[in-house]
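From the shared-data thread, chain only:
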Amino acid sequence: MAENRSNLTETAFKAVTGDGAAKQGAPEGEAGNFFRHVLSLAMTKSGDGLIDPKLVLSWLLTNAGVPSVLIGLLVPIREAGALLPQIVISNRIMAWQRRKWAWAGGSVVQGLAVAAILGAALLMSGWPLGLAVCAALAVFAVARSFCSVSYKDVLGRTVAKSRRGTAAGLGASVASAGVIAFGAVLLSGVAERALVVHLALALAALLWLGAGAVFAGMNEPRAEPEAPRPNPFRQFGVLREDRQLLRFVLVRGCLVATALAPPYLILMASDQGESGFRHLGLLLFSSALASLISSYAWGRFADISSRRVLIAAGVIAGVVLSAAALAGWAGVVGTLWVLPALMFALMVAYHGVRNARSTYLVDMAPEDRRATYTAVANTAIGLILFGGGVFGLIASALGTVVVVAGFAVLSFAGAALAWGLGEVETCAG
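Structure, as C-alpha cells:
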C-alpha cells in the first residue's frame, strides 16, 4: 500500500512539474515534500482570501460601525507587521536544525488569531471591535513573520530549483478555487452576508491549523545550526555586499504598488458615488479568478525566469493602473463592471509579482544565507509598507486618481529596474 502511494505521488509529481527524471542532487523525498508545500500553501492562501483585510475584514468592521481610522490600520498592520520583525526572528530560527517547526507553529498561531477575530466579531461592535481585531491581526502578522522567514529556507532544502515556483503557483491556484466559491456564495444571496463572513472566518482558522499539521510532516533535512548574532541588524550589510540583492529590494519596493492599490480603487469608486463594498462578492470573485487563472502559469514561468515574470507583471500593473487612473478621471470607475475588471487585471499582475519575488529570492540566495537574505529583504519592504500611510495623505490632499497614477509610475519603474537583474534560474543548483 505504501509503495503504491509512493508510486502515485511520483507519477503525479512528474505530471505536475513536467519533469520526467529526477534532478541530480534532488532532495530526498522531494515528491512528497512538493505536495506538502502545495497543500499547506493552498490551505493558508485560502485562509488569506477568506479574511482578506483589504476587502473582507474592512467590510466586516465597516458593517459593525468601527471608525474608519481603525479600518485604515488593517492593511498596514497585516503587511508591515509580518515583515518588520523578520530581521530579529531570523537570527533565532537559523539556530534551529529543523526550520519547519517555525512555519508549522506560526501557522497554528495564525489560526488561533483568526479565531479570536471571529470571537470579537460575534461579541463586540464599534471601537472595542476595531481595537480587538487590530490586536489579533498584529499577533497574526507576527506569527506570519515566523512562517515567512522559515519558508524559503525549508523550500530551498526540500524542493529542487526549477520546481519551486510551480509549487507556489499550484498552491495559489488551488486556493483561489475556494475563494471563488466564497465570492459566489456572497453574490448568490443565499444567506445573510454577515453570517457568510463569520463562517468564512471559522473555516479560515481551521485551514491555518490544518496547514500547520501538514507542514510538520515535511521530510526536512537537518540544517547546520548557526549561533545567533549579537547584533542581528548587521545583517543589513548584505545589501552592500550583494548589489543584486539591493536591486531586487528596489524592484520589490516599487512593485508593492500592486498590493497597496486595491483599497484606493475601491475608494475611487466610492468617491464617485459607488460603494465598493456593496460588491464585496464580485470583487472577491474577480480577485480569486485572477489567481486561479494566472498563479500556476506564473509559477511555471518563474521556474524558467523569475526575472522576466517581474518585468511582465510590472508592465501589466503599470498599464492596468494607468487605465484605472484614466477611468477615475473620466468618472466611470464606479460603473458596475469597471471596478471588478480592473481588480481582476491588477490581481493577475499582483500574483505574478508575488510568485516571482519569492522564487527569485530563493534561487538567488546562497543556501547558507537564504534566511538572512529573506529577512533583510522582507524587513526593508516592511519599512516601505509602514510608510504606505503617506498615500492616504496624498489621496486626501490631491485625490485618489493622483495616487493610482503614482502607483502606475512605480509599477513601470519596478519593471525597468527588474530588467537589470541577473538571471538566477539558469545557475546550477
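The chain has a mean pLDDT of 84.
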